[in-house]
Amino acid sequence: MQRGLNATREANFADWYQAVVREADLAENSPVRGSMIIKPWGYGVWELIQAELDRRIKASGHQNCYFPLFVPLSFIAKEASHVEGFAKEMAVVTHHRLAVIDGKLQVDPEAELEEPLVVRPTSETIIGDAFSRWVRSYRDLPLLINQWANVVRWEMRTRLFLRTSEFLWQEGHTAHATEADAMAETLSILEMYRDFSERTLAMPVIAGEKPENERFPGADATYSIEAMMQDGKALQAGTSHYLGTSFASAQNIRFQSETGELTLCHTTSWGVSTRLIGGVIMTHGDDDGLRLPPAIAPRQVVIVPILRDKPEDEAVLAYADALAVELAELTAFKAPVRVLVDRKPGRSGEKRWDWVRRGAPLIVEVGPRDAAGGQVTFMRRDQLWASEKVASVSEARAAFIAEVPARLAAIQQGMFDEAKARLYENIRDDIATFDQLAAHFGPAAEDEDANVTFKGWVRCAWSKPSGEALEEVTRRLKTLRLTIRNAPMAQPKTFGPCLFTGEPGVEEILVARAY
Amino acid sequence: MQRGLNATREANFADWYQAVVREADLAENSPVRGSMIIKPWGYGVWELIQAELDRRIKASGHQNCYFPLFVPLSFIAKEASHVEGFAKEMAVVTHHRLAVIDGKLQVDPEAELEEPLVVRPTSETIIGDAFSRWVRSYRDLPLLINQWANVVRWEMRTRLFLRTSEFLWQEGHTAHATEADAMAETLSILEMYRDFSERTLAMPVIAGEKPENERFPGADATYSIEAMMQDGKALQAGTSHYLGTSFASAQNIRFQSETGELTLCHTTSWGVSTRLIGGVIMTHGDDDGLRLPPAIAPRQVVIVPILRDKPEDEAVLAYADALAVELAELTAFKAPVRVLVDRKPGRSGEKRWDWVRRGAPLIVEVGPRDAAGGQVTFMRRDQLWASEKVASVSEARAAFIAEVPARLAAIQQGMFDEAKARLYENIRDDIATFDQLAAHFGPAAEDEDANVTFKGWVRCAWSKPSGEALEEVTRRLKTLRLTIRNAPMAQPKTFGPCLFTGEPGVEEILVARAY
Fold this sequence. Notes:
Two copies of one chain form a homodimer. Chain A folds into three domains: 13-92 and 119-284, 2-Layer Sandwich (BirA Bifunctional Protein, domain 2); 294-423, Rossmann fold (3-Layer(aba) Sandwich), CATH 3.40.50; 427-512, C-terminal domain of ProRS (Translation Initiation Factor IF3). The first copy, chain A, has 14 helices and 30 strands. In chain A, the strands form nine sheets. Chain A has an eight-stranded mixed sheet with strand order 3-9-10-16-13-12-11-29, with helices on both faces. Chain A has a five-stranded mixed sheet with strand order 20-17-21-22-25, with helices on both faces. In chain A, a hairpin with a 6-residue loop joins strand 1 and strand 2.
């Protein structure tokens, strides 16, 4: 039987991932090592992610700004702990001119900058510098800023959407008068990310706090949402940091309180990136390609007219167009239904499979018989197969149209339910010792990208060791290529002994292999 | 009498411009020379510009993509004519790591890139490279791509929004099978820019073709829209280029035609940038600050509650909030009315002036008397003064609400009409010789940024000299600091003799001082 891809998740998950990105026409590698070209279908997904997140960010009182791409080297140097964390792998601008020398275009040695400029790996320092000027009095607080931008972190080993040198993201930066206010912000953003991820991306996640050695450098607390991919690995899909007063101290962000004292602000930062698209692929894709949750599908209904270079083609096209017009008047996910009539030249059979690979939620095929009989023949991308055949269904036109909003909602919900079941069914909580943990996960594969047997995650009690004791746990986990993902927000009331230290547990954590 | 600014257009237009940008809280200089920080109010304007242009770009069949920030040096070198035009002033990334050496964070000399990377001054070459891979057959044409991005052109002398090293823009790039198709695209985009500028920005422009020496390097034809600022200077507000087959040839963008021949594509490119915001400021601002056309005002109605730390404050706030809720349910410019209750601490008189400076179209002040009497007291930003007093008007609440959409439309139209009258009244068409031209414009001012007397533009017959003859005209114009802006699309049927060559005119051109 024909399938959408020549790769399967089971045979090699990494190859399958690449095949989906390519065959769904989401993105491609660019001639610049480590940078990607996001193609229209992939960028359309990102635009929908942006639109809904931006709506939420604004609704919660944040304002968008734009800060410079370049950060002076001295800013990075100021933030010592910061630097440590970013591994110093950054793109550095050292010159501002090209010149033809000896008949060849090259960097003009005369045009060296006095101070090198770093291409922002994050805007933490440049925004902190602005905050130090913008915050004067308690009246200026809270200061709630967000930015949509491109950032660059030099990467040696890249994978489209998951790890690229340049990526697109949103970074929120806020300043508050008190720890309580800043912490409330940190957690309300975490909850926004969780809700967004589950509702809009249909991607279930577990929100929780990172262990201290996984914190954003300089942060007092780092929270994340973690999603389970179909190979059982965890993907950190968003982070929210409470930075305490250390960034404010390094960057001199102070305010005059109501009583007149000059006081350090408490700051936060938080972000999600185009990595989310990688998460969507690995949560929902199947061996026929991508499956997009309708809420982020650039086209929710694609109509493929079956044309045969015959006189009846005209009636088929008119029928398809009229159907599209009616569908576009409907509402799904609080916006007009996004519908396309695929008029590009080409065989309808091939076009059907193109849209299967791209993951359009509803694919409609309209031929002369449908046009004549007032029917619609369609496939649900989430239920493509029925006993080894593509499940193509015919319905009366009016009934089909009436059902589209509910059907899109059902697809969205079904995809979420399926992923949620996978997540919760694959968190083991019956593993009590490190040996059991090692036995469960087995040795780390030679090639971590090739498929390893699906292992899921382990949830276990944790005594929250610190410093060297925590490093020791991390080292042991690393031999199994495991990491602590987070301590989920939802915790039981009592805990068994810590899997690692044997001491009384104070919380539970998730342990997994991860991207 | 109190005014919003301490600067006037008449005293020094350049100082006035800076004052508006600062006092309207639009943007500020950043610690990185030449780069700006776009603040929430300024970025809000940009988001509205983006949203409407993006809607139009998509409605005309274009798709958004994202291409890498970095362009390999070899790509720039390939495009020789291209390089010439960009004056080679570009930010160049030469290293990918920072390191602590001798206790100091610096560029790691070990981490030099094999090939330097240029921060995109435009994405022409990197998109051309993608097109060479994406275009195979006539079936792939037209290929209609747009990108929203940041670009960098190293500038020595910068001015916020008008000329900065980094700026935000949209760049369209398209490939077509025939010259006719590509030219139709070029002109339809020009018309889109004109209509957008006039309808959405209320900024009248004249669309036309640039003389050959002002073309985008390598282009066969360059078109622009030109707007008249309140100092009489021209601002090029958008460009659309027909690139012929030269870019396709340099970048190998070919397609197999229906008859099987391998044929070069005809390509176009076009863009507008954050410079448009500079145009809006200099078209609509006055000596009290910015005046925003309602279509791009982040808040169209701002309600300032007059609070006195007294028990009746609560009623005033409740009244303001209820008013805001009702207004937000109304529609203006096909979107919900954007309304804000300004609850920030501070005196209402100061807040009134803040919103005057920021250019909010309708500023409402609500005090205890209004709340008790069911009234609304408001100012129209476009009609702020009545015989040296701020024209504050009271209306019954229901009547005010009912009138808001029409009033916003009237403000938008009034601002456009005012600017259009200024434009057309200040184009002289009765100047026949170069001496008269020199006498009209007078000598070039020492400080071109300080105010010079308003001169407007001159429209004159033009014999379209080429090559050296054109250079000669350009040199003569340069002594007066004048340039040819464009040859307007709308032309008469007959022409007098050319002002410069005395030869028979073949079209009319606009001559002006310009930004």
